[in-house]
Amino acid sequence: MLADNSYHLVVLDELTYMLSFKYLDQDRVLSALKNRPENQSLVVTGRGGGSALSDLADTVSEIKEIKHAYNAGIMARKGVDY
Question: What are phi and psi of 18, to 5 degrees?
Answer without folding.
Answer: -65, -35
